[in-house]
Design goal:
The structure is a single chain. The protein starts with a helix and ends in a 12-residue tail after the last strand. The protein folds into 2 domains: 64 residues, lambda repressor-like DNA-binding domains (434 Repressor (Amino-terminal Domain)); 101 residues, Sandwich (Jelly Rolls). The protein is of the alpha+beta class. Helix 2 crosses helix 3. Helix content is 25%, strand content 28%.
Length: 190
């Protein structure tokens, strides 16, 4: 699509959001209805100063008018999940693969009875977890917490932390990391 067509399409869209006819936009910008029509169809291009005047009349500015929103993946089908089994047969499943650059990183942990995930060193962000099955031991700094199925936890990740199964059955935890990570070591899902 040519730039003239893209500009015309955006102007037509903004005009529609405002509920204005081409004549109303023409009256507000002191341009002709014919010029607005030609511009919206990509047949002519306005000068920069005319375009600036038009978009300001439509309630925006040139920067926002030309801003292109990045396409983000919204749905992550199960077949796209990334899984890794560690040396203790714990299964770590990244539920939104490729989303490491986002501020939320959801991971499903399947921890074998009596096993632990690698300890994670302090880092930026927060950790949220919800225990779906079993019971876990959460070591957070010098403190230890027991978290049962149906319970959740939330903590700033600025201390060493580790999740271990504290159950005779497999423990399953939905873990969500919030914030930027500067480094990632070992098999820790944090």
């Amino acid at each position: 699509m040519k730039i003239e067509e893209q500009i015309g399409e955006k102007i037509r869209e903004l005009r529609g959001w405002n509920g204005w006819s081409q004549q109303e936009l023409a009256d507000r910008t002191e341009l002709t209805k014919g010029f607005i029509s030609q511009m919206e169809r990509g047949r002519t291009a306005p000068s920069i100063s005319t375009l600036q005047h038009i978009v300001e009349c439509l309630g925006t500015n040139l920067s926002d008018f030309f801003y292109e929103e990045e396409n983000h993946q919204i749905v992550y089908p199960k077949e796209t999940y990334l899984e890794k089994e560690d040396d203790s047969s714990n299964l770590i499943t990244w539920l939104a693969p490729g989303a490491q650059d986002t501020c939320l990183q959801p991971v499903l942990l399947r921890i074998e009875p009596g096993q632990s995930l690698l300890q994670d060193n302090p880092h930026e962000g927060e950790e949220f977890g919800y225990v779906l099955a079993g019971k876990i031991r959460l070591d957070y700094g010098a403190e230890t917490y027991t978290v049962r199925a149906g319970d959740s936890f939330l903590f700033p990740a600025n201390r060493k932390h580790r999740i271990s199964s504290d159950s005779a059955q497999v423990s399953i935890v939905l873990l969500v990391h919030k914030g930027e990570r500067k480094e990632r070591k070992g098999d820790s899902p944090f």
